[in-house]
């Protein structure tokens, strides 16, 4: 059911507000958060699709600078509020942008939309929070090329995936863009298994590039 009220909660030392039309952190968010906390320290970390900004706040513990991108104006404003509220506006920088001109980073993370069917009642701006395309990976693949160019060699990519997605397409794309991967953690729910992918950026071969 849709909520048009502002919710508030605490996570670790952070106070978080979630605005209407913004994805409210759920099990998949917290799974990614736990993996993120265990990453080694880096100079620059980037988040695509920051939502309310919780994951970028967590990343500030391991990164000197966090750059977050968001295309949903509601989420953009929400993230700005939470970053200012938690007094990290000098360390986390949020842009209302797709991130095409983002800098190089040693760590990139995201919780992309991955459902292939929209929940009833969710349309328009709400769909951005859930819908990953008919195969569940379309939105993620759209940005994977950019990620592969902006991630430093041996850099890490963390993202959320679901057993409902088309995994052969996902894995083929990861290989073609020069990534190896492992499943950092997985958890079975009633209708799906949620997984956190931890990918390492390797060199792409000439044959890989020709197939893109």
UniProtKB/TrEMBL annotation:
Any one annotated GO CC term: eRF1 methyltransferase complex
Keywords: Methyltransferase, S-adenosyl-L-methionine, Transferase
InterPro entries: Euk-Arch_PrmC-MTase, PrmC-related, SAM-dependent_MTases_sf
Molecular functions per Gene Ontology: protein methyltransferase activity; S-adenosylmethionine-dependent methyltransferase activity
Record-level GO BP terms: methylation
Record carries keyword Transmembrane: no
One Pfam family recorded for the sequence: PrmA
Protein name: Methyltransferase small domain-containing protein
Organism encoding this protein: Candidatus Marsarchaeota G1 archaeon OSP_D
């Amino acid at each position: 059911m849709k909520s048009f009220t502002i919710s508030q909660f605490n996570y670790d030392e952070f106070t978080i507000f979630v605005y209407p039309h913004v994805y409210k952190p759920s099990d998949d968010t917290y799974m990614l958060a736990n993996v993120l906390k265990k990453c080694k320290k880096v100079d620059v970390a980037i988040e695509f699709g920051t939502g309310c900004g919780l994951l970028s706040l967590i990343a500030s513990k391991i990164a000197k600078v966090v750059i977050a991108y968001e295309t949903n104006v509601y989420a953009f404003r929400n993230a700005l509020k939470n970053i200012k509220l938690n007094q990290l506006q000098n360390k986390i920088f949020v842009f209302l942008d797709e991130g095409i001109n983002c800098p190089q980073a040693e760590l990139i993370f995201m919780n992309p939309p991955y459902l292939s069917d929209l929940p009833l009642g969710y349309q328009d701006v709400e769909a951005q929070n859930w819908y990953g395309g008919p195969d569940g990976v379309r939105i993620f693949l759209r940005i994977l090329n950019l990620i592969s160019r902006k991630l430093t060699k041996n850099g890490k990519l963390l993202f959320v995936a679901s057993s409902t997605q088309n995994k052969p397409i996902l894995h083929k794309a990861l290989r073609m863009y020069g990534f190896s991967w492992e499943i950092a953690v997985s958890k079975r729910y009633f209708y799906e298994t949620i997984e956190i992918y931890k990918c390492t950026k390797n060199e792409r071969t000439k044959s890989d590039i020709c197939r893109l």
